[in-house]
Amino acid sequence: MGYQDEWLLLEAEDEIDEMEHRPPTEEFLFYQAVTNGDIDAVKRNCEQERFLDSEGVGVLSRNAITNLKYHFVITTAMITRLCKQKGMELELAFRMSDFYIQKLDDIHTIDGIRNLHDAMVLDYTEKMRRIRRSDTNSKHINVCKEYIYSHIKERITIEDLADTLGVSASYLSRLFKKETGDSVSVYIRRQKIELAKNLLQYSDYSMIDIANRLSFSSQSHFIQQFREIVGMTPKKYRDAYHAIQWDMETDALGNTHKQNDGKT
User: Fold this and answer.
1) How many domains, in total, are found in the chain?
2) Is the dihedral of CA 62, 68, 74, 75 positive or negative?
3) What kind and span of H or E run contains 248?
4) pLDDT tens-digit profile of 6-54?
5) Rounded CA gap, 131 and 35, in Å?
6) What's the pLDDT at 5?
7) Helix crossing, 184-202 with 219-230: angle to 10°?
8) How many distinct helices (H) and strands (E) make up the chain?
């Protein structure tokens, strides 16, 4: 029997008449809260554990864990696309989606999936809150920011951006300064330094490795730029914030966690 025939048979069964899905209003309002950056509303939803409420929700798998994972993937996919529509950089939205969905591979409990869901939706919400507070840019500038995010490890010039948009470098330079308050070079430098801060805090890459990964002209140039923006050298930043030692612990549910014994 083919899938279509099997569906037609199922559709005729009495049992299917008992399956009712909840109205989409609540789901829509939740997604709207995420894309609007409404932290309080999203936190309330998480505290009420609405993600675990199975009433009116489709059964996608007979296995409870697999079923919840499928719903997690659907929720993540919807939020990713809606956040992109509301101004989140395309690559940021999809890279976050890939990250959280891949984390499902290591989770095998309902509590673990719920915790991951809550972390995911709050992460998107917080980022959207920041975007909506500052998003007054034109389409050209948003495309520039998208390009910069996607190529942040490369050497980016105003000419690269202008060619991507099909405008002159001088026009784009004036527009970018007018709308963001920063020159293109300053904005790019700040974005690179933000990524460098994460690498210094959460990785063991050396200074020269970080400088090379972010396409600074030299290690000394990286240190100079970092000091100007952050107010301290990369070494002092790492000494202050680096996660020195990570120990693996297993909780009562069998989930593996990393515990930071260093400075935060």
Assistant:
1) 2
2) positive
3) strand 246-250
4) 656 655 665 555 555 556 667 878 888 899 888 888 999 999 998 988 7
5) 10
6) 67
7) 100
8) 13, 2
Residues 28, 101 within the same domain:
yes
Token duo for residue 37: 């950056």
Domain extent for 171: 139-241
Looking at 74, 106, 134, the residue that finishes a domain is: 134
Say how many C-beta atoms besides its own lie within 10 A of residue 86's C-beta. Answer: 17
The residue among 138, 130, 132, 140 whose CA lies nearest residue 194 is 130
CB 256 within 8 A of CB 103: no
- Do both 120 and 159 map to the same domain? no
pLDDT category of residue 140 using cuts at 50, 70 and 90: confident
Is the pTM higher than 0.85? no
Please report, as a single letter, which amino acid is at residue 49: E
Q: What is the CA radius of gyration of the chain?
A: 23
Last residue of a domain, one of 134, 151, 185: 134
pLDDT tens for residues 185-202? 999 999 999 889 988 987
3-state secondary structure of 258: strand
The length of the chain in residues reads 264
Both 153 and 225 in one domain: the answer is: yes
Residues 108 and 181 in one domain: no
Average pLDDT over residues 126-136: 77
- Does any domain span residue 6? no
Euclidean distance between the first and the last CA atom of the chain, given in angstroms as a whole number: 59
Give the tokens for residue 121.
């939706």
